[in-house]
Each structure stands twice: as C-alpha cells, then as structure tokens.
Design goal:
Layout: E1 11-16, E2 19-25, E3 27-29, E4 33-43, E5 49-62, E6 66-71, H1 77-86, H2 91-94, E7 96-103, E8 109-125, E9 139-145, E10 148-151
C-alpha cells in the first residue's frame, strides 16, 4: 500500500544546464499548469442541467514565473546567468534546462521537477538596512519563465 503522508521539506536544490547544485533555496513557488478545456452541458439523471469540465486535448499553460528565494551568498553562477538576459536577449545563451529537487532534513531527495526552456524573468534582492536586527540575512529572489515542466 502506498504511503500517503505529505513530504517534509527542508530546502530545494537547483541544478542548471547539467551543472549540479547551482543553488539551494528555502522557498519555491508557483509550479502550476492548466489544460485547455470546454464546458460540456448535459442533463443529470433527475433532469437537472449540469455543466461539466471536459479537457479538449488542447494547449497546456504553465504558470509563470516559478519563484525561487534564498539568502544571498557569494556564489555568482545565477547572477552571471541573469546578466545574459539583461542585455540583448540571446535565447541560445540564456535558455537552460533545470532540475529542482525537494530535499528533506536528512538531505535526501524526495521529489524532482525538470523544466525546459527556462530563463530568468526577474531578479531582486531584499531591502538592506544596516540598522536592522543583527544577523538579518539579505534575500535573493529569482523569477524563472519556463516552456514546460514535469515531475518525475
């Protein structure tokens, strides 16, 4: 019998274009997709009119952007990739495949997602305040546009 317990998340690991562990993130959001559909009207057994949602086999829309968030560190691999998009957009230089792995507290992979046709669509850092609480981390947020993604 399959285990139906939710997976515990400690952090997410990002591998980019075949390069392993480019970054570790505490937050990943908006990995969604929707399928084109039609409303199909019919009458139920008692004769009540009903509309059913029926997939049409049409286009799949991937929710964008996928947003990754982490504490800013000294590693510049993601920033170098972002810079390739900020100037003249060159799809061959900017688009990548990536893998995002959900890791538990033992650093074991519990789920994997692969995205294709990925490029940075936004980049931001948190507000910095020298008078803030001691040890407040600077936060880096990266938005990613995707062509497709899948869980495997």
């Amino acid at each position: 019998m399959p285990k139906l317990a939710p997976l515990g998340v400690s952090h997410w690991k990002l591998s980019l274009g075949g390069e392993e562990a480019v970054g570790f993130f505490r937050s990943v959001s908006a990995m969604g997709a929707s399928v084109e559909h039609s409303d199909f009207p019919y009458n139920s057994e008692p004769g009540n009119p009903v509309k059913a949602w029926v997939p049409t086999g049409g286009a799949v829309s991937y929710q964008e952007p996928i947003t990754l968030e982490r504490g800013l560190d000294a590693e510049l691999k993601l920033w170098e990739w972002v810079k390739k998009v900020m100037g003249e957009f060159d799809p061959d230089a900017a688009m990548r495949e990536l893998t995002i792995e959900l890791l538990n507290y033992k650093n074991e992979t519990k789920a994997k997602f692969k995205a294709t046709g990925v490029w940075p669509s936004s980049y931001a850092t948190s507000n910095w305040n020298a008078m803030g609480a001691k040890g407040d981390p600077a936060i880096e947020t990266l938005g990613l546009a995707v062509e497709t993604w899948e869980r495997f």
